[in-house]
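In the previous chapter we treated chains in isolation. Here, by contrast, the input contains four separate entities that must be folded as one system, with a combined length of 812 residues.
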Amino acid sequence: MMSATARPAAPAGDLDPSRRNNLALISSLVHHHGVLSRAELTKRTGLNRSTVGTLVGQLVALGLVYESAPSGEGQVGRPSPDVRPDPSTAALAVNPEVDAVTIGLVSLGGQVQKKIRFATERIPTAREAVNIAAAVIAGMRSELDASYRITGIGMAVPGLVNRADGVVRHAPHLAWRDEPVARMMSEATGYPCLADNDASLGAEAELIFGAGAGRGNLVYLNGGASGIGGGVIADGALLRGSTGYAGELGHTFVRTDGKACHCGATGCLETEVSQAPLFELAGLEGGDAAQLEEALRAKDSPELAAEAARQLGFLGITLRNAVNTFDPDTIVLDGFLGVLHSLSPGTLEGLLRTQALDGAADKTRIHRAALGSDLMMIGAAELVFTGVLADPAGIRELPVPAGKAR
Amino acid sequence: MMSATARPAAPAGDLDPSRRNNLALISSLVHHHGVLSRAELTKRTGLNRSTVGTLVGQLVALGLVYESAPSGEGQVGRPSPDVRPDPSTAALAVNPEVDAVTIGLVSLGGQVQKKIRFATERIPTAREAVNIAAAVIAGMRSELDASYRITGIGMAVPGLVNRADGVVRHAPHLAWRDEPVARMMSEATGYPCLADNDASLGAEAELIFGAGAGRGNLVYLNGGASGIGGGVIADGALLRGSTGYAGELGHTFVRTDGKACHCGATGCLETEVSQAPLFELAGLEGGDAAQLEEALRAKDSPELAAEAARQLGFLGITLRNAVNTFDPDTIVLDGFLGVLHSLSPGTLEGLLRTQALDGAADKTRIHRAALGSDLMMIGAAELVFTGVLADPAGIRELPVPAGKAR
DNA sequence: CTGAATTGTTCTGCTAACCAACATATTATG
DNA sequence: CATAATATGTTGGTTAGCAGAACAATTCAG
């Protein structure tokens, strides 16, 4: 009998940390920029031409990028081939909301290939949301198997989510509590699944592909039917916190003796600033931010202006706090918060200039979200891509598409 | 004539990125833990025994660590030598305040070897502070040259500091504006100098050597004569922001229609919560936090209790915001904020439990600062050590002590 | 005193990056 | 249109640094 001497465990799985780093570096650059010539890659990475050559070759073999004919003209010298993210490598995105579950297919590079919004009669339970998503994904299955390599599913949930284990601690507007959605989703579909807070993912998406492209310090605030969500990118990385619940700016204190919030406190931003009174004053029964904006621009009532000003004041307090705590270069407002800002340009900037600390506010720019309705899909997919890009060689263990689409 | 073909530029200066990383990893571990056996180092780094051997050898040669006889007994097998930070490698720390300039000498490993508090008649200007520090350092010079290798000077300044260039943007209580203190200090002493916000450095010090040891998400709040400073460690790294001004929790909004703050806003924590009324009610003319605590414990007046409760309420609002935004595992209160908390244990925890979002507050622990009066010295020195530990081999260019002290 | 356990030490091999020389493709120039 | 200049891909050789194996050292258990 042979005694079981400890064997190397992993057959061949992983490579040198140095290689992994450099592969991650290059694939991330390509993913974030969309197109990058090999020459640009050598400049940005600081690596040797020959090294970049082998690395790109390896990434091509892994199906993460592909090289195409040089486009850059007007340059002296031998043209450098363009390196692009391979769109056949993709992730699925799931975003449950109070009135719908949206499922998307997002390619490496951030292209939303497909988006299906499944409207629900009533607020979906976690089980219902998972079942809906699983059914839609099952419907897409043959197409997915044929043309894509799916690296996983990302879920963007409006609530407190523990990114580490994918458990929704509490999603007040969905009335979910301690739901292990990632595991449920994974079991229902067979794909690995990760979950995180929707606004946090929105912040990441805007940072990489949207209004904050190229920046490193971004505060994202989204106002929707289910309150105000926040996500923060600090020094280039998403703020997570010890349990992954960081960034909940919707519950910033903005008013003494304010109304009670469902969170247990009083005077939260979310209770003072909401879209319901705006819709009412605009004479709308419901709808999205675009419809609200149109109605508000058309209507010219003093009550409406007063309400908007009131809300902007409270929003200003939150932004002032955020600027003092994070010193961001970019603030991105989405949903009806973006509408409020657009209708009264300069107001928030003015508040910040007078109220926030000296140095911090000067450089901060306030933008509206740039990615629109694709935002959540891109953010959720990014959750998956982040893992893939961190160790590109690890992708080998994933199922491969029968015939790649390009 | 020889054409000047591009030469390797740096003679030999830097090593492989991989080596640099591993050296940084090991030296940081030793610096943070104080003592670590080589065997433990191999476990923690995951590197091979032989590799750790060479790396430690290199660090010994660089004068950053030294090995001593094994202490760990009761273990089977060959004993592993202890690796400790070499205390002859040190940094100088400077902390200007409204009524004094404190200069310290801190060894690698965080030991404060010397601390000199130079009381000033009036608030020092930047020039005066630099001159005082330079004079004290000049006095120590022969000792420094004989026994230490000084890796630089770290300055902890109560105000907005741009860490990148060492310029104090605005220190309201010192009445400094746009003072390039790091450059001034460097020119006055010949040592390289870095500067940062005092509370940010306090947060780092508490994270590494104090109440937050081993944690990754920490909020530090210090209440002193010159207001309330804040520093935040998020996911293991100090929160800096785009210009380095992040973490100013002293200007969190806590009260509608509150008093006007010097920062331009109203209702800031710093205006509502201050030590002056506490000192007054305690019947003290001045003094430090310890004296205040003693007086408050002795005195049992309802006015004092009411004022303390009022201030704790506002502090609670700030902490609630901080918990919702950062989801920290540890909150550290220093100065009179620590006193307030100690006098009424459980109050802040109670406020958090009811007011902050579900998941976040449960795990958050509130502590008083553990490092006392050494905190600023350690934090400021850490500013220098961080750079040294990030590239241990770069230390070779620094002056070497004539005869090392151990 | 012997054996087991653990760790330091030495030597060898492999991986991956860099470098230099050469090949290639484009623009600029006359 | 030919040639020079420029920039970049490609190839082969060199080197740094880590892992692994074999061996030596040191301690504990009995």
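Chain B touches chain A through 53 residues (CB under 8 Å). Confidence is low (pLDDT under 50) at residues 1-12 of chain B. Compare these points with the single-chain example from earlier in the chapter.
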